[in-house]
Specification:
binds ligand 4FV; alpha/beta; three-stranded mixed β-sheet; 8 helices; elongated; 28% helix
């Protein structure tokens, strides 16, 4: 088993105090200094301090095989840019997927790339119901295909555009997953009728003042008539989804859409995903 050359200063982000039930995130990157970055702020940052989740950042260069810490090489068949070397990427993945006892952890390894399957709230929910995730961040043309196949790596995209690296997509995925973990969002209710929770886009939102630049809050929202308000919000969500996301509307009307809506995962659900053991 390849032993990584531990850099002189172990990463302060190695969170060895992983609490039971804590969601474990392992990030493989050639730019470890980008983390935790924005993940240290606000609710996600608070959850990190409270060990609701843990972050371990591994520098892929620590798994390079030569003294130049080379992690990439020119593309076979020619062409621009560089490709991440399979042996180096695999060594980093194997190190990440080996828990303290050297057993292979069972959580997914995800490579963030524009070629990936689009990240959806449904996939985020699945990930949040698990124990953890390992995220491989590219910085080049890509990663050698053989390591993706050889290690069963799942490719995920955060959108049809090209970034300079996978680190920001990794942070987006972490934020989306961790916010569904118990105890992260103040009032759990807020995830219930948010975008995609019912396979629909969210209805418009309003707050005081009642009139602003000659624009009024829709009367129904001030009526106190909860059934009519819910009905108005649903009709708005459907209208917006039809207009802006015919793909979502098709999925929604063909019953494919989000099944049971999003709600903060109860401990029972989280542990169910863990195969039944509960904390209490
Ligand atoms: C990306 C995306 C993305 C492509 C080349 C990193 C960059 C570089 N990742 N969704 N869109 N990645 O643009 O996930 O390696």
């Amino acid at each position: 088993m390849f032993q990584p050359r531990i850099t002189a200063r172990p990463r302060p982000l190695i969170d060895d105090q992983v609490a039971i039930g804590s969601f474990r995130v392992k990030v493989l990157t050639v730019l470890p200094e980008m983390f935790p970055g924005p993940l240290e702020a606000s609710l996600i940052g608070k959850a990190l301090k409270e060990h609701i989740w843990s972050l371990e950042v591994l520098d892929i260069r620590d798994f390079a095989r030569n003294k130049h810490r080379t992690v990439d090489d020119t593309p076979a068949g020619g062409g621009p840019g560089l490709v991440m070397k399979p042996d180096v990427a695999a060594a980093a993945i194997d190190h990440a997927q080996a828990d303290a006892a050297g057993e292979t952890v069972l959580w997914p390894v995800i490579y963030l790339s524009p070629r990936g399957r689009s990240l959806t709230q449904a996939r985020v929910r699945e990930l949040a119901a698990g124990d953890g995730v390992t995220l491989l961040c590219g910085r080049f043309e890509g990663v050698d295909q053989r390591v993706l196949e050889g290690r069963g790596v799942e490719e995920v995209s955060i959108g049809d555009f090209v970034l300079t690296g996978g680190e920001i997509p990794a942070m987006a995925l972490i934020d989306a997953v961790v916010r569904l973990r118990p105890g992260v969002l103040g009032n759990a209710a807020s995830t219930e009728d948010e975008s995609f929770s019912r396979g629909l886009l969210e209805h418009p939102h309003y707050t005081r003042p009642q009139a602003w630049e000659g624009r009024e809050i829709p009367e129904v929202l001030l009526s106190g008539h909860h059934a009519r308000i819910a009905e108005w919000r649903l009709s708005q969500a459907e209208r917006l989804t039809k207009e802006r996301r015919p793909d979502l509307w098709r999925a929604h009307t063909s019953g494919e859409g989000a099944a049971d809506g999003d709600r903060e995962l109860s401990d029972a659900q989280t542990s169910a995903a863990k195969g039944g053991q509960t904390k209490d």
